[in-house]
Amino acid sequence: MHTQKHPISAPSLEELVETLQAPLAANYEHATISVVPCPDLRNAPFHLATEGLSGDEKIADVGGQANLFPRPRLDCIYPMPDIAKAMEMSSARGSLIGAGAGPFHVVGQNCELAPNLSWQDGFENINNQTRIVQIRRDTREVNLQKSTCPGCALMVNLYGSLGEPGPVIKITAKKRKGPEKSFTECIRKGLLAAYGESRTVSLGGAFLVNSGKARFHVMPDFPSEEELPFKDRKQLENWLTYHDFEAPIVCLSVLHSADPEKAMGLRIEHTHCFSPLGENAGGHYHYDVNAAEEIGYEAYFNAAKVICRIDMPEATSA
């Protein structure tokens, strides 16, 4: 896989706390942000495959939406161990979390993926806690299951680290009062306002929708050949299925303040989610949908020092 490495100058966590205080306070009635020791994210409610978010912090943007639009490129299949190697992550230990398209070649149909895995003493020794969210062909209902395959297809955005405990940014937000309905976009736009288009600041981590309701989409199976290619963005969006799910929902997220001159073809924000209760709920996070005063979040993020752009398509957006 062709890989371009882009070192980035990450602000300190303390600087990021100062930067994000105002935009969070403007959008939520109750908002706190601080640098804290990362809790053990293997525990409920997060159920991650690794304890923390520290050590050799990197983000990978693999493939892209151009591998789906105007027609799916079914040869774009990415084993997670190969991605970790392309990121030059340690084989001794590490972890990947994030958002992508599922391994349709194993599942038997197109689906959403919430990557959540770690390894120790070799890339083959994987603890795979990844979730797959799909639309059942028979009932058209959402189905959540654990993945049996450490792989993905088409596109994936990943936060990688050694999975060690260490300092992270903790954010709590409740009772939205501002116009930004997306928690991740509130954070991202706050970074963009502070650092501008010419500097990239990239965060990865996990957050919990701990009260209220949010909207998600789940990709159904690929359209038939007669229905392809997708003619425009509107047709692609109409093909997706949309769902509102109640808390609790665990969300694995990667976001960037900007892609300077769009040189890296970055997907600027990508968040995939699953029910920690094992209910058939999850998918691609969009925003809160119920009465704003009911929504609540708890988040843990760390800043990446390197972006790895892997197998970038010639066209980078749908």
TrEMBL record:
Its main location: nucleus. It comes from the Eukaryota. GO terms for cellular component: nucleus. Pfam families: DUF1907. One of its GO terms (molecular function) is hydrolase activity, acting on ester bonds. InterPro entries: C11orf54_DUF1907. Residues 19-310 form the DUF1907 domain. It is found in: Nucleus. This is DUF1907-domain-containing protein. The lineage of its organism: Eukaryota, Fungi, Dikarya, Ascomycota, Pezizomycotina.
